[in-house]
Design a protein that fits this description.
CATH class: Alpha Beta
Largest sheet: 6 strands, parallel
Strand content: 15-25%
Order of helices and strands: EHHHHEHHEHEHEHEH
Strand order of the largest sheet: 3-2-1-4-5-6
CATH superfamily: Isochorismatase-like
Number of strands: 6
Number of domains: 1
Shape: globular
Oligomer: single chain
Length: 206
Amino acid sequence: MEMELKTERTALVVIDMQNAFCADDGSLADAGIDITNLAGAMAPCRQLLESARQAGVPVIFTRYVYRADYADGGVVIRYLLPQLKDVNSLAEGTEDIEIIDLLAPVEGEFVIDKNRPSAFYATNIEPILNGLDVDSLVVCGVTTNICVESTVRDASQRDYKVFVVKDATGELEQLRYDGAIAGMAWMFAKIVEVEDVLSVWGEGNK
């Protein structure tokens, strides 16, 4: 039986579309990292967001946020990417953590802060989804290979029906993007495009 994209019992999950990753003055860009592929997800995410709002689909944003002193940075900050600390990346209280203006949440939408790639790790996303009676997730955002894929895998293992909108996600390198999409498609999610979602939500398909 194929998973069917619907409006009812579905939430849009927008992963980490924040200044750190997508803004020209964010910490990644300041560190000399080319964010072109990440910024490219902004307009498609906006399309999904507008469609979700019109269709009455609940919206959940996530933000990657560390304490200002990075005490919660763990292995990533200590060993793998210590340079993030050098540019004050993802630090609480900075503009880096804010959702980009183009996708600014409105009243009634959920914003979940996390300090690990998966939106399901040590957050309250599951109680929120349970409270909304959601069993299906439409996922977009950045980065495809890290936070999107980590969230998708965790969601699938909790038996949520997951739809990854491939043209509304972004990864720094094409090779990692391709690998992530292929891996998720194998057994964790159905891969769709923006137009697939808009055609369903625009029609009010329950």
